[in-house]
């Protein structure tokens, strides 16, 4: 009889379908039945069965109580051999239901604790205590950056429970390696001047990604040949476009929206700029590294695991002057850009999706006591 795994997260569109399809395929290849639980915002490809429960992102939402009840019923009915949960509230709802139904082992993957250094007090107090309590019904806690790993090691997991540090969820480096483009054609397609120096930012247009600082930094650059290409969509687009207009930067800031050819755009860029306020271990930075780009990014958890003085610069996400200084400096030093890019390309190998999947298989085998 095939073994069953339950994979749960708050959303499909923003999480499962973005990060975990390779792992669903991994289980199916091994002969497992893969049930996926989300709030039903989008269909999940390759899943054996999909279930929708009323998980909400807010820990104060009453809907999460109903989600726990729905999850309890599901676990009692299907008798899972393994539970894997992701996202803060997906992890809360799933682990409570698993504890009540005595479903185990339970693996929780933290893609970035909400009580990171510098987080608002309510995050530090609420989410840290939630994780501390739920650790007691967790058999395996996987973290993806060093800061979270050190925090997780202080939690008391279920008997024989273990904490692991995994290098993220993996990036498809093979796809990046085989990406070849005609740079001039790609620039023409995006409306970038032929001789422009291209600074690239990739991410959802939300406060956390802090495109505000990226736009302001371009405005401060001494070299007016520098343009910023922003790939992403989100609720802040109108405000960011207004900021661009107010700073008279409409000819130097290009909004590309959501793109499926980001790897191609990276091959046409000169620098990757990523001033985010909060990250776990950003895949976009790993992909930029694999594309051979120097990186200027915020000096925060996750980014520090990826970028050092050999591959770019870490800056305060609100330090516009330093950001613009480093952009100008890299503009003037093509040899340094090349050295940074070559180092980053080599460093990115440790985050290769193929390697991460093998590491995940080893963790699951260790936790379950069986070959998956």
Overview of the structural elements:
The protein has 372 residues and is of the alpha/beta class. It folds into two domains: 4-170 and 352-368, Glycogen Phosphorylase B (Rossmann fold, 3-Layer(aba) Sandwich), CATH 3.40.50; 173-350, Glycogen Phosphorylase B (Rossmann fold, 3-Layer(aba) Sandwich). Helix content is 44%, strand content 17%. The chain is built from 15 helices and 13 strands. The chain has helices spanning 12-29, 63-78, 88-101, 121-134, 146-152, 173-177, 183-190, 211-220, 237-246, 262-268, 283-290, 303-306, 320-332, 334-347, 353-368, and strands spanning 4-8, 33-38, 49-52, 82-86, 106-110, 140-143, 162-165, 197-202, 226-231, 253-257, 271-274, 295-298, 312-315. The strands form two sheets. It has a seven-stranded parallel beta sheet, with helices on both faces. Strands 10-9-8-11-12-13 form a six-stranded parallel beta sheet, sandwiched between helices. Strand 12, helix 12 (303-306) and strand 13 (312-315) form a beta-alpha-beta unit. Helix 3 (88-101) packs parallel to helix 4 (121-134), helix 7 (183-190) crosses helix 10 and helix 11 crosses helix 14. The longest helix is centred in the N-terminal third of the chain and has 18 residues, at 12-29. The mean pLDDT is 96.
Descriptors for this entry?
single chain; 372 residues; alpha/beta; Rossmann fold; 7-stranded parallel sheet; 6-stranded parallel sheet; 15 helices
């Amino acid at each position: 009889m095939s073994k069953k795994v339950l994979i749960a997260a708050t959303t499909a569109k923003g999480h499962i379908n973005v990060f975990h399809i390779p792992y669903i395929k991994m289980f199916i290849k091994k002969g497992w039945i893969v049930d996926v639980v989300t709030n039903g915002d989008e269909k999940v490809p390759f899943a054996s069965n999909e279930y929708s429960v009323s998980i909400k992102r807010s820990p104060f939402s009453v809907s999460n109580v109903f989600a726990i009840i729905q999850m309890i019923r599901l676990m009692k009915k299907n008798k899972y051999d393994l539970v894997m949960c992701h996202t803060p509230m997906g992890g809360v709802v799933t682990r409570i239901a698993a504890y009540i139904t005595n479903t185990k082992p339970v693996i929780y993957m933290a893609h970035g604790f909400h009580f990171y250094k510098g987080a608002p007090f309510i995050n530090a107090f609420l989410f840290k205590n939630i994780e501390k309590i739920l650790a007691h019904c967790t058999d395996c806690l996987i973290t993806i950056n060093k800061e979270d790993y050190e925090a997780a090691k202080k939690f008391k997991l279920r008997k024989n429970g273990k904490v692991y540090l995994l290098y993220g969820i993996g990036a498809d480096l093979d796809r990046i390696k085989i990406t070849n483009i005609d740079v001039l054609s790609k620039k023409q397609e995006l409306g970038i001047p032929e001789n422009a120096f291209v600074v690239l930012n990739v991410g959802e247009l939300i406060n956390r990604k802090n495109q505000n600082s990226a736009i302001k930094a371009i405005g401060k650059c001494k070299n007016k040949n520098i343009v910023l290409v922003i790939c992403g969509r989100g609720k802040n687009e109108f405000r960011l476009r207004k900021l661009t207009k107010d700073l008279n930067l409409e000819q130097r800031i290009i909004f590309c929206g959501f793109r499926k050819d980001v790897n191609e755009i990276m091959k046409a860029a000169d620098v990757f700029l990523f001033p985010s306020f909060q990250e776990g271990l950003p895949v976009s930075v790993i992909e930029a590294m694999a594309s051979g780009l120097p990186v200027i990014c915020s000096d925060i958890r996750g980014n520090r695991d990826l970028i050092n003085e050999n591959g770019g610069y870490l800056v305060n996400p609100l330090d516009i002057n330093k950001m613009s200084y480093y952009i100008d400096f890299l503009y003037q030093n093509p040899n340094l850009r090349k050295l940074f890019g070559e180092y980053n390309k080599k460093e990115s190998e440790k985050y290769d999706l193929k390697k991460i999947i093998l590491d995940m298989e080893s963790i699951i085998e260790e936790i379950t006591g069986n070959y998956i």
